[in-house]
Design brief:
Layout lengths: L1 H15 L20 E7 L6 H15 L2 E7 L4 H14 L3 E4 L8 H9 L4 E4 L10 E5 L1 H13 L7 E6 L6 H15 L3 E7 L5 H10 L1 H4 L4 E4 L2 H13 L7 E5 L3 H9 L4 E4 L2 H16 L8 E4 L4 E7 L2 E3 L4 H6 L6 H4 L5
Parallel strand pairs: 1-2, 1-3, 3-4, 4-5, 5-12, 6-7, 6-8, 8-9, 9-10
Antiparallel strand pairs: 10-13, 11-12
């Protein structure tokens, strides 16, 4: 009888201290370092405002699920990001989550992680030809379509549009542009200028507007790849008295973009519920680290093979629905959004 009781207590102890290896991840309370799931979270950089929000929600969610997260930022440098991921592999983390600096340059290091049995998630941006375990992002073509639809609702067919986008190395950029250009083509819009800002540097948008102002002054709208680029574009327009005279789009729902909606200098920002994305990504990372299945997902072709894919739908935000989408959801506070309102 004593042996049976001892065996029973041993089983209970193993179940209680299995950490992230058990199926009930949310109930785990690890007690030692060896029992904790470790997740490597590699950011391209924190140039884009939203990334700090993504980071904080991801880390807090993972912690709630009994995991520890090692966060690294590469400062926009591909070689640095590769070295961070190599370090994750050497330390034997249980999963790696990557916001890639380059859609193609990280393929080999992702494959190296996979060869070591470490699952990899491409967060927001896809690593091409890598066979990652999951690509989780927003519907980027929908982002582009919603930007274009906002422009086409305010500009007559056949209008002139300038495109100021992020780097071509970010696979989200061509996805967004596919959606944007498709809608513009339906309305006979003329794309008069195109420019890609390296590493999403906002100051490059400012310089581009100033260097090409004579052509840009004749545009009806400027499609900016995100709100940071839109901010510097509008800054350059404002210095010449053109802010609010040319429609400008962006994405991410940044606070300053929402303030510009109120001021009338930005037409639309495509809001992406990053808290939802970050929470779901953290849950998926812990599942993969625990050897659990993600369940039913869509598939996305990464250039070499189909990989699991989860897409979250974004929402176009204008002055008309700013309160209901941004403020009522708690994404930004009313007093902050309207702080510059007359």
């Amino acid at each position: 009888m004593r042996r049976r009781i001892t065996a029973f207590l041993l089983v209970i102890t193993i179940l209680l201290f299995a950490g992230c290896k058990g199926p009930e991840v949310k109930e785990v309370t690890p007690t030692t370092k060896n029992e904790v799931c470790t997740i490597g979270l590699s950011f391209d950089s924190f140039v884009i405002e939203r990334w700090t929000r993504d980071r904080d929600v991801f880390v807090s969610t993972a912690n709630e699920l009994g995991a520890e997260v090692n966060v690294q930022s590469a400062g926009g440098d591909v070689a640095t990001q590769i070295s961070h991921i190599k370090l994750f592999i050497e330390r034997g983390v249980d999963a790696i989550v990557i916001i890639t600096a380059d859609a193609n340059a990280l393929s080999d290091i992702v494959k190296e992680a996979s060869d070591k049995g470490i699952p990899v998630i491409c967060y927001d941006r896809l690593v091409m030809n890598a066979g990652a375990d999951l690509y989780i992002s927003f519907d980027n073509e929908s982002v582009g379509r919603q930007m274009a639809e906002a422009i086409c609702a305010n500009v007559e067919d056949g209008g002139n549009i300038v495109e100021i986008m992020g780097p071509e190395s970010d696979y989200n950029v061509p996805q967004v542009m596919n959606g944007f250009d498709a809608v513009c083509e339906e309305h006979g819009m003329n794309i008069t200028l195109k420019y890609n800002c390296d590493n999403w540097k906002p100051e490059l948008a400012y310089d581009f507007v100033n260097e090409h102002f004579d052509e840009i002054a004749g545009a009806d709208a400027i499609m900016c790849g995100n709100d940071a680029l839109a901010g510097e574009t509008i800054h350059a327009l404002a210095e010449r008295g053109y802010a609010g005279r040319i429609f400008v789009t962006g994405q991410d729902g940044d606070l300053e973009a929402c303030q510009r909606l109120v001021e009338g200098t930005q037409l639309v920002t495509v809001y992406k519920p990053v808290e939802k994305l970050a929470r779901l990504a953290a849950e998926c990372a812990v599942k993969l680290a625990s050897g659990e299945s993600l369940g039913q997902t869509e598939l996305f072709f990464d250039g070499g093979q189909d990989i699991p894919y989860i897409a979250i739908e974004p929402s176009a935000v204008t002055i008309e629905n700013l309160d209901s989408i941004i403020i009522d959801s708690g994404f930004h506070l009313r007093e902050e959004v309207y702080m510059n309102a007359g």
